[in-house]
Design a protein that fits this description.
By secondary structure, the protein is of the alpha+beta class. 51% of the residues lie in helices and 9% in strands. The protein has helices at residues 11-15, 56-66, 73-81, 86-94, 105-115, 120-131, 141-146, 149-154, 161-172, 178-183, 186-193, 201-211, 222-232, 245-261; strands spanning 2-5, 23-25, 31-35, 38-44, 49-52. A five-stranded antiparallel sheet has the order 1-5-4-3-2. It starts with a strand and ends with a helix. The structure holds a DNA duplex.
DNA sequence: CTGCAGGCCCTTA
DNA sequence: TAAGGGCCTGCA
């Protein structure tokens, strides 16, 4: 149990920013985070004060990296402020506590294959059903490769079941080498990932950003495309944000979904 | 009953 | 290389 001060951090915003599907609110108003085989409960006391339900050792070894706490998001937001871009300024003021999580590669690969043509509540439900037989832990490539198509479809995967089986088997056969993938740069990783059936451009960029931690990756889903279309007349220059376009994307996505609800 | 949700695959031209 | 149809499933 430890109390910490963290600037530019809102666990609620992160939980609702669509990058991760295993953070949920408990009945006591805390946030339960499941990652790296651990469960962490976080309570937000005020704007910058949080209680993490773990020891300092675990915090330093796991959660500090996971929540990208070494990065100065304040500086990133300052850079955006200077761009004279009204839409982005509104987006960062709204999503002031967003961070791009550094999640586990395998979980990201599977989660974002599932995400295609799907909505967030359903993605969460499917992932929960996949984790259930494994004591709440995310299923390994072996676990998933063992599942029949029927079992996977029973979890609600639909036509994505064969994609999941295919990628899982590829990992077991060493045709898909995650360690090698981790050594690649962004561009190379996209080409590598897109070889596999069920991983297209958008999912590959999500994997690069959330799973490989290439902050320059820029996933373009329907929301981002809509923003670029309507706010920027089809012309959005991401080269302005060399090395952190993915973080910009996260602010945009989060803000646009808020706008659409109001 | 249709339409659609954080795409992708496959086929055509 | 661009365009279009089909796709599991569940909910509005």
């Amino acid at each position: 149990m430890m109390k910490i001060i963290i600037p530019d951090f809102s666990i609620e915003q992160i939980a609702n920013s669509g990058q991760c599907f295993r953070i949920g609110k408990t009945t006591e108003g805390k946030w339960r985070v499941q990652a790296f085989g651990k469960i962490l409960e976080i309570q937000q006391l005020d704007e910058k004060t949080f209680i993490f339900d773990c020891e300092i050792d675990e915090y330093e070894k796991v959660w500090f990296e996971y929540f990208d706490l070494s990065r100065d998001y304040g500086e990133i937001k300052n850079n955006i402020m200077c761009c004279d871009d009204d839409y982005l300024i509104k987006a960062i003021l709204y999503g002031y506590g967003i961070r791009v999580l550094k999640q586990e590669l395998w979980e990201v690969i599977i989660s974002f294959i599932i995400s295609q043509r799907n909505n967030i509540p359903r993605i969460k439900a499917i992932i929960e059903r996949l984790c259930k037989p494994h004591n709440g832990h995310f299923p390994s490539p072996e676990d998933l490769a063992r599942c029949s198509q029927e079992e996977l479809k029973a979890a609600g995967l639909g036509y994505r079941a064969e994609y999941i089986s295919g990628v899982s088997r590829a990992v077991l056969d060493r045709r898909f080498d995650q360690d090698m993938l981790k050594q690649m740069g962004h561009d190379e990783s996209i080409l590598y990932l897109k070889q596999f059936k069920g991983i297209g451009d958008k999912v590959a960029h999500c994997i690069s950003l959330y799973g490989l931690h290439n902050m320059g990756a820029f996933p373009q889903d329907v929301w981002i495309k809509r923003i670029i279309d309507r706010q920027y007349k089809g012309n959005f220059d991401i080269s302005r944000f060399q090395g952190y376009a993915g973080i910009i994307q996260q602010y945009m996505f989060f803000y646009e979904r808020f706008i659409s609800k109001t």
